[in-house]
Design brief:
single chain; mainly alpha; 10 helices; flat
Length: 267
């Protein structure tokens, strides 16, 4: 007779892992409670929010359609111009910075770090903060909006382009270099065909994002439809506010459809 083997008990986590998970959950719960206490949520206002929201929407309807031709249309066109010019400006500035940030093109570690710092710094500052800065420098208007959109987008466009350049296959590049092709030819014939789909995809995506962001720049005086929205809000013209919000929503949806169709054809 052989002795019966002891029963083995399987556990998914070790005691150390269970304690670590418990400590993580406890820390997350404490962080949520601490955050909720620090923002000072007033329960009475929170309970009254649904009724206030419903009342606000009732004030917005029906829209003041006559206000569109007088104020909204011109501001909407200006918003589209701000987004488009800002995107073009960001591409023009981001391309050379991306070439400096790509380690397989620029071999200098110092230049790589400087370019990476520029890409991180420009996208870490919110568009509204850029707009406040440029409004203070150049005054209210569309110029401040274009510059804020352009400078904020440098980091996004440059980072995506630099990563695409670093992922370029080495075969065609080495073949061009072996034939003695100049650097400009290596860029145009070796790197560009590989990164072209990514470039157009990033440019279209950034233009789509910039249209949404440029719609609110007017709240800080940087031109566009946001200035009409700010005026309507300050005067409590809720029927005009509803109209402007509906126009912004329609433009965002239309832009999404257009950019998606272009990406399907180009990329």
């Amino acid at each position: 007779m052989t002795a019966a083997s002891p029963t083995r008990h399987w556990e998914r986590f070790t005691p150390l892992q269970r304690n670590a998970r418990f400590a993580t959950y406890l820390a997350a719960t404490a962080a949520v409670v601490w955050a909720a206490r620090s923002v000072e949520i007033i329960p009475e206002f929170l309970a009254d929010a649904p009724a206030q929201t419903a009342d606000l929407f009732r004030r917005m309807w029906p829209f003041d359609w006559g206000h569109y031709a007088k104020e909204v249309h011109a501001a909407l066109i200006e918003t589209l111009h701000i987004a488009t010019l800002g995107t073009l400006l960001s591409i023009a500035l981001a391309v050379p910075i991306a070439l400096l940030a790509a380690r397989n093109i620029t071999r200098s570690r110092t230049l790589n770090l400087i370019a990476t710092f520029i890409l991180v710094a420009t996208r870490s500052i919110n568009t509204l903060l850029w707009a406040l800065l440029f409004v203070a420098v150049f005054g209210p208007g569309a110029l401040a909006g274009v510059l804020s959109i352009g400078f904020h987008s440098i980091g996004f466009v440059g980072k995506m382009l630099a990563e695409a350049l670093e992922e370029t296959p080495r075969g065609p590049i080495e073949a061009l270099q072996a034939t003695g092709a100049p650097s400009l030819s290596v860029l145009s014939k070796g790197y560009w065909p590989a990164v072209e789909p990514s470039f157009w995809g990033v440019a279209l995506l950034r233009w789509d994002i910039n249209i949404r962001e440029s719609a609110v720049l007017g709240l800080v005086g940087a031109g566009g439809i946001g200035m009409s929205l700010d005026t309507a809000l300050n005067n409590l013209y809720w029927d005009q506010v509803g109209l402007i919000l509906a126009v912004i929503f329609a433009v965002v949806i239309a832009t999404e459809v257009v950019t998606a169709a272009i990406r399907r054809r180009v990329i």
